[in-house]
Amino acid sequence: IQEYSTGVWEGSKTPFQNVSKVPPGSYVLINLSTLSFEERTYWQWGSSSSRLKKSHKKHLPVQEELKVALQESVNKQLISDFPVCAFLSGGLDSAAILASMNQMQRRNVKTFTLDFEDRSYSESYLAGLSSNFLRITNEKVTLSAGDIAELIPKVIDSMDVPIFDPACLGIYALSRTSAQQGFKVALTGDGGDELFRGYRIY
């Protein structure tokens, strides 16, 4: 009941009987000879922060430490056999990621921004400020109420686990548009609002 009321399936839980997810920071090693499997952990909470502190001999201000961590993370995500685009909202999280991408990539970064016919939900103005400042190409993907209603069954069908976050509709629309233009990898600021205080509720 808790999972259906909150829309979040934590840990290894799923809505399917006798089916579990691989826990975060883990992988499953399968022995094809014996058809057995073993779950192994490759990352634990706090391990990255401790390595980060050891890797920097000098104590940096918090702003610089955040910048270094962000650049290292973005640089790892840019390793791809295909061009990488970005989903740009009006928040600091996606703008910071885009700024890091723009510094590391020699070619112009292509970005996609979700827009709505209902202007009260639109972040295109703020996204436009970021793209203009960084001098990158930005394309708006506009959704109407009818478009959203049409997307709902497609998004539900493509989910591994049901979640009750309406943002998945926008991510689906942006992914579909970017894929049509040949992009298979996209960086986003999704999930960074808590850290960068992207909305008033945070």
Characterize the structure shown.
It is a single chain. The chain is an alpha/beta fold. It contains eight helices and six strands. Strands 5-4-3-6 form a four-stranded parallel sheet, with helices on both faces. Helix 3 packs across helix 4, helix 4 packs parallel to helix 5 (124-134) and helix 6 (145-158) crosses helix 7. It starts with a helix and ends in a 6-residue tail after the last helix.
Low-confidence stretches: none
Largest sheet: 4 strands, parallel
N-to-C SSE string, H for helix and E for strand = HEEHHEHEHEHHEH
Helix content: 40-55%
| Overall outline | globular
Mean pLDDT: 84
Provide the β-strand percentage band: 15-25%
Judged by helices, strands and strand pairing, the structural class is alpha/beta
Radius of gyration: 20 Å
Strand order within the widest sheet?
Answer: 5-4-3-6
Number of helices: 8
Number of strands: 6
First and last CA, distance: 26 Å
